[in-house]
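Hello,

Our lab assistant flagged a job as stuck in the queue for most of the afternoon. It eventually completed. Since we weren't sure the result was trustworthy after the delay, we are filing this so someone can double-check. Below is the sequence as submitted and the structure that was eventually returned. Let us know if re-running is recommended.
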Amino acid sequence: MGVIGFAYALLTNPDSDERRRGLPAKACNHDATELILIVKKIIGLFSSRYILSVGAQALMSGFHFGLGFYLIRSVPQYDYGIYAYAFLLAMFAGAMNNALISTPLTVYSPVIKEEDERAEQEAMFSTLNLLLFVCLVAAGVVYGFVSETAKPITLSVTAFVAVYAARQFSRSFGYARLKPLVTATGDIVYVVAGISFVIIALFISTGAEAQIGLVSKFLLALAAANLAAMFVERWRLHGPGRRWLVLANIKKYGYIWEQSRWALVGALTTLFLSQAHGLIVTGTHGPKAFGPLAAGMVLFGPVRVALMTWQNMVKPEIALALSENRGDAVKKQVGKSVILMGLAVLALGVCMLLGWPYLKEVMYAKEYADQPMGYIVSIWFAITLFAALYNAPSAALQAMRDFRILASASIYGALISGLLVTLLLYFIDPASTLLGILAAELFMALFLTRVMLNHLKKDWK
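-- returned structure --
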């Protein structure tokens, strides 16, 4: 505040100080104006919608990290494996929503100029979101009745997965309207509600109750928190006059399906290439074997979520820039993003390396002393770095609506990942399967960057 006050005094009374020092009034006034501009830029940066959105996302990521940290220290590897597997299923459900509904919403809707036409299309996507939610709930309930897994576990996982996927659409709605602060508000509500519901779950889970009951209650708490966030987001976007249960005609989705089907293939295979170890290890060796691998990823989970948030924010803007033939601006934005994301992950890795003895003791000494956690965390760092490097090119290709090339790339990546994970698991051990994920992420980083640069050179000069 002292700097701002000094600059303001110079601007409002430019002749006083420079006359006492014998300086030219114009020169001092020019310097003061530059200082004010710098201060305004700094204030604008920290109050911009992007910084506020990322800050809200960081708050949500911190909440998830804290929750994972508590469970890693408090529950056995098997129980944490179930919790992590629920998030893995939620990621697949969210990927389906993102490919079929949320990404088309953020890419197609912003460029529609007619308000009624845009509202009609948004209603169509809302109806599809509801249908997907119902399908996920129905699938979970059916599985709960035919499976030998305890009913509280299957039902809590089902509720969490279905609501998690539905909120992907709710969050994207704010980005599609170019109102990221609406989504940021929802993220803050999610954190506040989540903390409250988790505390309630802890209070009702005391005594000699099985810890797996605690995991189920935590999943239900997160589902309820997502519902609260969705309500606030929709209220801010549509106001109190919204009719919540109106179903729209989805016949016009046909022309979008021609491209979104490739987005679906790309989304699922992209997720598989980064999570093949979770599906394969859990399916063959059970949640206990998956627990240590998931525990090592907790340190990088917030980075993954932040990368997805950045994609959701910039895809509508890149789409608009490309529609206005501003390919050079897109290339510049993508280049800066790649550099910043890479440096951020490298900085995180250095901090973890310096603090590893403390992290190992605090997080993993109790339940994971028999696991090679240093090796697991190191591989996750390399995986996260490559994922960060191709995040921006992937966003650009989605904005170009080239879902087919994305699907083709991710299919190859999924084949690399699935094959290597299977071989490494069979010949070595579960921890080594992460090398298969690393190879697939490296392939995606190189391939998508090359394709994006070729597209910009060819189509948007």
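-- support follow-up --
The delay was a queue issue, not a problem with the job. The result is valid. Residues 52-251 form one domain. Confidence is low (pLDDT under 50) at residues 1-21, 42-47, 207-211.
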